[in-house]
Amino acid sequence: MTKLFKSLCGTALVLAMAAPLAAQKKPAPTPAPAAAASGPIVPGLGVANLDAVIVNSNAYQVAQQQRPVTYKATVDAYNVRAQQLDAQLKVMIDKFNADRAAKKPDAVLQQQYGAIQQFEAQAKEELQRIRMPISLSEAYVIEQIAEKLDQAVQNAMSKRGITILLGPDAVIARTNAYELSPTIIAELNVLIPAANLVPPQGWVPRAAREQQAAQGQAQQPRPSAVTPAAPKPAAPRPVGPQPEGR
User: Are 164 and 38 in contact (CB under 8 A)?
Assistant: First the structure.
């Protein structure tokens, strides 16, 4: 479960930044509740889609509804700038297509194509910077929910008598009798009915925090494995006249 938590929190920010801002994410379909099925049922076996569990939790859904209002200024700024960049890109693409139709030299077309690619990359980076407060909010909400996910899974498994829980990718086909996702969602809604929408000042996702900590440890000087021996003091010279040797 620890590996799952790190995976969810580590990719939260990347997924949030890649999603279009104009359209809200559609939640994953809620798995159907367990139903009676013909044929043998393996006791103690369950299947759950934990990604779908998180996005179908009440805390996640409420945050999705509140975010466009809380971050309205960011949403408006993003959409205005995105339209401006789209218009500039269209001019560049139209000129490229016109020059290609006019059979301009390949060197000219290649230069224009490179400029278009560079503009697209810079535009994407700029939009991601504008969207960063929303991306951090999405990652913050997911991390809060993921922190309660392990306990929700344990509670659901205990109530249903499940001893082995599989992910949907590990199963080729199954009946709904093995579906544990709705039970986990219900437990998650009890543990975290709502999540804080706005992260604290300076907050970064868990994956970034762990990376910063690892970098800090790597930069610390390591003590030498072998401590050099202290030099031996020189033997004291006798004071006074010395006897002559024979």
Answer: no
